[in-house]
Structure formats: C-alpha cells, structure tokens
Amino acid sequence: MSKILTVDLPGRAYDIEIERGLLDQVGERCRAVLPRAKTLFVVTDSTVGPLYAQRVLDSLEKAGFFAILHTVPAGEESKCVERLQELWEAMMAARLTRTDGVVALGGGVVGDLAGFAAATVLRGVDYIQIPTTLLAQVDSSVGGKVAIDLKAGKNLAGAFWQPKGVFIDPEVLITLTDRTFSDGMAEVIKYGCIRDRAFFDKLAAWGGRSGVMEHIEEVIHTCCDIKRKVVLNDERDTGERMVLNFGHTIGHAFELAGHYETWTHGQGVAAGMCVATRLGEQMGITPAGTEQAIENILKEYQLPISIPCPWDTLVEAVGLDKKNAGSDIRLIVLEKLGKAIPHPMARQALLDSLNPMWKGN
Predict the structure, then answer these.
(1) Across the chain, which distance is largest between two alpha carbons, in Å?
(2) If 31 and its partner were Cys, which of 52, 63, 86, 187 is the partner (CB 3.0–4.6 Å)?
(3) Is 326 exposed, middle or buried (0-12, 13-18, 19+ CB in 10 A)?
(4) Which residues contact 85 (CB under 8 A, 6 or more apart)?
(5) Is 0.85 surpassed by the pTM of this model?
(6) First to last CA, the chain
(7) Quick one: which of 81, 87, 67 has its CA closest to 26?
C-alpha cells in the first residue's frame, strides 16, 4: 500500500511516494507529474545501473518517454565539477529541452549531482528523485538541496531546486551492503535524536538491520515526514532547517580527514553526533547521559562513535561550515533526546571547547 507525503511548497509542491514495487511503476508516476516531457535523461551510477536501470527505462518507455541513460562512476568523487560538466554536455547532446526532465536513480551522490545539473542546465529543468539507498530515501532525496563538492570541502557549490516527485521503493534496499545500510541508519537515528524520542526508542528496540527492515515503510515515512515539516517551515536553511545538520559540523571534518573515501557520510555524522552531544552536556544544555544513549544505539547499528581526525582538518572544516555567519557558528545540540536546537557561538569558542577533546585523543 502506497504512503504519500506532500511537500506543499507554494508553486513547487510535490509528493513523496513510498511503496514496495514502485520501481516498476515510475513511468506512469513520472508521466503524471511531467505531462509535457518527451525526453527523460536518467542519471545513475556504476553500482545501481546494472541492478535497476533497465527496469526504470522499460517503465519510462512504456509511459511514452524517450529515455536516455547516463552512468557515472559510483562514489563521492563523482560529485565534482568535471562530472557536472560531463552531464551538461551529455544533456545538450541528447537535445534536452526545457520541457523535458532529469531522473536521478541512485543514492545521495547521484541525487545531488543530477539535481544540480537539472537546476542549472538551460537555467533549470524539472527532475525526479528515485533514491535507492537508505540514506537517500530517508534524507537527501527530500528538500531540494543539490550540490557538488569542491576541493575546499563538501557540498560547497549547489542550489535549492525542488524535485517534481520522489518515488521510493523500499524493496531496492535488499541489495545494499551492510556498510551502506548502516550508513543510512546514521541519518535515521539523527531524526529520532532531533525530533522524535519515541522513534529513537523504537530503533533501539529493533536493534539492527533485520528489525528495521520489518518496519521499513514506517521508518522511511517517519524520517521523510519530519524533514518535510522542517523544510516547509524553512526551505532555504536559515533557521529551523539547520537542526537537520545535527552531527554534520564535526562529521564533515571526519569525512574530510578520510578524503571522502575512508569514512562514509553516515559514519562521519554518527561520530559527529557523539561529539556534539558531549559538547552539549559540557555546556549544560544537554542532559547528562544523552551521549551514552546515542553511543549505545550507534553501536547496535555498527556505526562509529569516534573517528581519528587531525586538529588542522577539524579547524578547516569548521571554518567552511555552511551554518557560519561571520565569525559565529550555530552548533546543533540536543536540549533533550527528541529536541534539537541551534546554539550560536563564536567559531573560536567552539574550537576552544573542542581542543581539550582532541588533545585527549
């Protein structure tokens, strides 16, 4: 049975549809939201393509679209200027017009890259998200943030470009490796931390991948609903939406320390949530014992609670954080489990608070 959530942004509303077997029905779903499109430019990667691309192409062609497949190498390194330009040129070679569209079939990297290409080619064409990883299904496919990485850091060039639809088939998750599934669980756990203590407790009780998969529609729906509500209140990430970045300020430093290869985004966020919660406890904002509760659940889902990171890398990442405002930063901390708040502080004060932790490592 399909679960539908509507992101009701004025003039840019779209539905998030969650349904087992939806992958074989994406053609009719795309036709419903892109009635004028003739060509759909499908972007996938070298991991997802062999598994699911043909099913999607068949469904699109059955719905009357001319579907063109473009595959990029799997991995964070594809979120770069060179791949973006490659997509632009391929889209022009395919004679894409402003009434056509782009389909992102894959995880967060494909969604960000294809979405940014759609936002910028021909000054913007419509696009569809078909997320195939847990992280993309519960987080990155929703909300309209699209970006590529720069040498200076992650997601530093991008746009706000809302999709015309997000079509989620939970059945595709069965092909994920345990590491990739755990990567997505970091964002799932984050949602419990920032907005829903009861959901956090359920995740702790389910205790692992098999338990989560028994309730996967509920998990995806809960996370998407939380993000949907936050985005409706703050589409451009100037206030409430910042709470979605709990664990990300330090997490991005961990990713940078591993050159975006050693540590996944979810692993960085997991360890980043622990650091942010420890800081919150030290500042008297977060109740004592909260970090231990978060560490316990992260261990259940095979996620790290700490990651080695050179001090200079941490300083660099904090300096590039997109929540910066002048010399200040808004660190996301927990007022309690289930409620996150932005905590404004001077960037140097944050670094001074972090320094003893790093010296102790």
Answers:
(1) 62
(2) 63
(3) exposed
(4) none
(5) yes
(6) 49
(7) 67
